[in-house]
Amino acid sequence: MMRYINGVMTSIDGIEIYPIFSLLVFVIFFIALFWWVIRMDNSTIDEIKNIPLNDK
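The chain above was modelled as a monomer; its predicted structure follows.
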C-alpha cells in the first residue's frame, strides 16, 4: 500500500510544496493564537477561567 502511495506522490509535479505550506499554516496559526492570548485583557481571562465552575 505504501509503495502505491509513494509512487503516486512522486509522479505529481510540485508535490514538495504541500508539506511546506502545511507547516507554514500550522506555525502561523499558533503564532496568531499565542499573540491573541498574550494581548487578552485580565477580565476576559478571569471569565474564561471560571467557566468550569459555573453551574447552568
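The chain is about 75% helix and 0% strand.
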